[in-house]
Amino acid sequence: MYKVTLRARGKQFDYNSAPDQSPLDAARNEFIPFPVGCRRGGCGMCKVKVLNGDYEQDLVRSKEALSDEELENSFALGCCMTPKSDLDLISIEDYENSFQKADIESVETRVLYPKYALTQSIALRILETITNKAEELGIKVNAAVIDDGANLKAFIRMDEAPLLSGTIAQNKAYTSAAFGRPTHEWYSMIKDDPALLTGIVHTDRLVVFGGGFPLIFKGIIVGGIGVSGGTSDQDVQCALAGLKIFEETCQK
Ligand code: FES
Hints:
Structural class: alpha+beta
Mean pLDDT: 88
Helix content: 25-40%
CATH superfamily of the largest domain: Haem-degrading domain
CATH class of the largest domain: Alpha Beta
Low-confidence stretches: 101-110
Shape: globular
Distance between the termini: 42 Å
Bound molecules: FE2/S2 (inorganic) cluster
Strand order of the largest sheet: 2-1-7-3-5
Number of helices: 9
Order of helices and strands: EEHEEHHEEEHHEEHHHEEH
């Protein structure tokens, strides 16, 4: 095992990564918020600057998101690299912010932090898309959008949607934003660990079945969405429709 130090979201995280494991996968297994997107190379959301250490990278996939100049200057994709020694990494967001902060401090004495916020119009568009998808599937759902502080941003209970699932929808959104991963990934992660399986499900507001997705913009979690009222698969389909409109809206 190699030691990895990751600076991301203004914090430092220390963890271990096996030689055949990407630092991104190792981090996410420990619930460390390594910025993540496609996990296949191409989106560039997991881009890091390697400050120290040796590594190997899948150049074919890395070249989809990194320029030759970046590759020469120790930039890498967290999902397409494996450690060959202890590593010291900084996310591209923190790397760029460190320069912005230096520029700002040189002219002002205040320290400013950029923050992405989920707007009302995006939240409402997500809900509208989710309910349209539910109509298409012939089901009635509750849908919730929460912000990065786990505050309820928007919520809808379609006519005749199950009352109880209103809370479940909000908890799915909360779980997704709090851990940065979809709720349907939870069960496969904990099913082979009896202590975790019987213990962690008692965590307040944790939901371990499908229908919740984090909302991630430029590698930063800005909120979460949760859908409940259909089968797990139907809830996932509705939530994915909401996620798609979020991603399309943010790219404009
Ligand atoms: S997560 Fe998309 S390139 Fe690594």
